[in-house]
């Protein structure tokens, strides 16, 4: 039984990081229509900023804040400088993001070499409860994710900003006619999604080492979670993140371990066939007035 | 008709001349390196150009080498395969057909080398690769003159030798630190072509040493969260968890294993004690490490210190598997010695010389290739006690492969 509980706890912590990246993906694609496959590299940059800050002697909490700000700023610059020109042609944005993956990876390799980067664990306590090992750093990651998800959910569903945002998703042109600054909101969502990726990167490097190529795997899982949960649906992303984390943990623990990733993506394919809008319903991206 | 035949013959001669490796007028001999300088295999990959580059510098700084009364210097031409087999093939084609290298080193990624050999061998390019998968194709028929792989050389011992010496070394170093004879081992292995190939031999080596191995747990390449795999291993109550084979993945997995208390001791394949010390790693249980083939952070090999001092002084980073560079560095010197002995760059004469020479390298004072173009040498295994003290020993390989 202790092994079973341990596997559930294992799944929860990685599900947290995947959920953070999935929320970024789901917000950006679901609400703005930008398909940013470089979102995983945003997460990687968040990890690198954290590594640089901690290596420079700063504490982990300050490093996390710097990672959020740096990746948020990077998101702002890239949205204003690149992605805004692709809003009418999402395919172009997709291709731009593929190019961005290579550029960001190689910028990091150029300045900080391709080797693994890690930081000392910010929390080192491990509790042993009935044979189940609970690492405090994993608990920290789970709690931060819960707080951020709750905040994002409230902002999207209950705030004036969130209502305007959802109106933009329903009909971008009509929302603009009603006085909603749609372009500015798109920038805001892109920056928010980027900042969440920065936080995800900071939390990821607290758990595991990263390399300049870490983003690729994570963004695939992020997209899988966003699609399973329903694009644009934060609640769906959280639920799907949990499902994926638990599926991964159990498949590695009890199934054919080498197929761990395959189980996750098979689940995604199954959900997309049975429920094309995800388990919890999504937006399918913004709609234009015809 | 005769004119057409003459033109055809002339064209064929011209093309033949173009296809054969050529020398620049300033007596520079080009040697190619194909290695993963980016992508998931980068940790081992970047050691190839570093090791070959150091050997090239050493040879050129010593004034070059004489063949046929002329003095030649070496030039290394490297290509990044990005841990992508298509890129490795394209890079090999470019080095062979356009750059016209005399020899190729790499790739370290096992299945890539097999594909690269399909290009280097028909072109009669001397090809060195430090991976044991070559045993699949190197046999008496394939390496004979006119055979498919006559110009291909394996600069790493056969896998039963490497696995055998490693398993024996790990068990003998961990036993006194554990205070009892370990009986049960679980292997955790990267699920790629290299991992599958290597683990099959290591499993047999452990069984040959009397170990009970109830499970080999494969993880997808690029895994960072090892906790589900480690929890599965923990459920088997092992004396030793053997992380095999990717050093970077192993370093990611070990802290998680220690947190989970997954085993009574661990073995980290391809992790140098230098990294253990540099990263200030520690464990409350014994941890064994092995290098491919000689460690840089702590070594019982007397030549290792001078080599690694020069290697790192040349700008190579301290890596988990920096020692992989030795599977290439020594063979640049070996190749030059062969050219000098043959007094020719003719590939057939070079192969003959390579097969008769006894080269004094860093790895061993007596490096030789057997009739199927494979080397034999010891592997270094180290162990860190819970207090932090590290001891190392060179482990000689078994003479024969385990029966089952």
Describe this structure in words.
The complex is a heterodimer of chains A (290) and B (404). By secondary structure, chain A is an all-alpha fold. Chain A is 73% helix and 3% strand. Chain A has a single domain (2-274), classed as ABC transporter involved in vitamin B12 uptake, BtuC. A two-stranded antiparallel sheet of chain A has the order 1-2. In chain A, helix 3 packs antiparallel against helix 8 (182-207) and helix 9 packs across helix 10 (234-254). The relative contact order of chain A is 0.21. Chain B is an alpha/beta fold. Chain B is 42% helix and 17% strand. Chain B is built from 14 helices and 13 strands. In chain B, the strands form two sheets. A seven-stranded mixed β-sheet of chain B has the order 8-7-9-10-11-12-13, sandwiched between helices. In chain B, helix 3 (47-61) runs parallel beside helix 13 (326-342). The A-B interface holds A 3, 6-7, 10-11, 13-14, 105-106, 109, 113-116, 118, 121, 126, 128, 133, 135, 204, 207-214, 216-217, 248-254, 257-261 and B 37-40, 42-43, 46, 191, 217-220, 222-225, 227-229, 231-232, 234-235, 248, 251-252, 255-256, 259-261, 279, 317, 319.
Give the arrangement of secondary structure elements:
The complex is a heterodimer of chains A (290) and B (404).
Chain A (H helix, E strand, L loop, with lengths): L1 H31 L6 H17 L4 H22 L8 H23 L13 E4 L2 E4 H23 L1 H11 L1 H6 L4 H26 L6 H16 L4 H21 L5 H15 L16
Antiparallel strand pairs in A: 1-2
Helix pairs in contact in A: 1-5, 1-8, 1-9, 1-10, 2-3, 2-4, 2-8, 2-9, 3-8, 5-6, 9-10, 9-11, 10-11
Chain B lengths: L1 H18 L8 E8 L6 H4 L1 H15 L3 E3 L2 E11 L4 H15 L3 E4 L3 H11 L5 E4 L10 H4 L8 E3 L4 H20 L6 E6 L2 H16 L7 E4 L7 H8 L5 E5 L2 H14 L4 E5 L3 H6 L8 E4 L13 H10 L12 H17 L4 H10 L22 E6 L5 E6 L9
Parallel strand pairs in B: 1-3, 1-4, 4-5, 5-6, 7-8, 7-9, 9-10, 10-11
Antiparallel strand pairs in B: 2-3, 11-12, 12-13
Helix pairs in contact in B: 3-13, 4-5, 7-8, 9-10, 13-14
